[in-house]
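Renewal narrative, Specific Aim 1. Our central claim is that a sequence can be written position by position from structural information alone. The example that follows is taken directly from our test logs and has not been curated for this report. It begins with the structure tokens describing the chain, in the order in which they were read.
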């Protein structure tokens, strides 16, 4: 079984979509092995998204991610990384396929409802950023 990291972002949380997204995660065969509701500080968001530090959208991204509560999760499934990325859909909700999370719950490239690890190395950084080993069941 592979693990991946997922976030229900502040926009989807504020819109009341978190429960629907979690229900869909279970319906698609994922096991949630870690889950927390939290309010990321600007510094925590900057640390999490450090790989984008030199990108022009870094400030906007970290402002958004620290703008309200979100839900962070460690998910487990066969091929979890690709499976979650496929379920999320394209970064831009307007380009996302029908039936994907971002198509259904996202409103823009910046406010696209969900985040997910894009590779095993990314998941290896992202999961322990928010979860200790004792918190993963």
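The sequence written for that structure reads:
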């Amino acid at each position: 079984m592979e693990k991946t990291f997922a976030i229900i972002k502040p926009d989807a949380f504020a819109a009341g979509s978190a429960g629907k997204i979690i229900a869909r995660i279970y319906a698609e065969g994922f096991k949630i092995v870690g889950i927390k509701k939290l309010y990321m500080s600007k510094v925590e968001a900057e640390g999490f998204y450090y790989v984008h530090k030199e990108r022009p959208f870094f400030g906007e991204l970290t402002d958004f991610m620290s703008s309200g509560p979100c839900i962070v999760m460690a998910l487990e499934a066969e091929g979890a990384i690709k499976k979650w990325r496929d379920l999320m859909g394209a970064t831009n909700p307007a380009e996302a396929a029908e039936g994907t999370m971002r198509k259904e719950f996202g409103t823009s490239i910046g406010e696209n409802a969900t985040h997910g690890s894009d590779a095993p190395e990314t998941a290896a950084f992202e999961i322990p950023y928010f979860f200790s080993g004792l918190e993963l069941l």
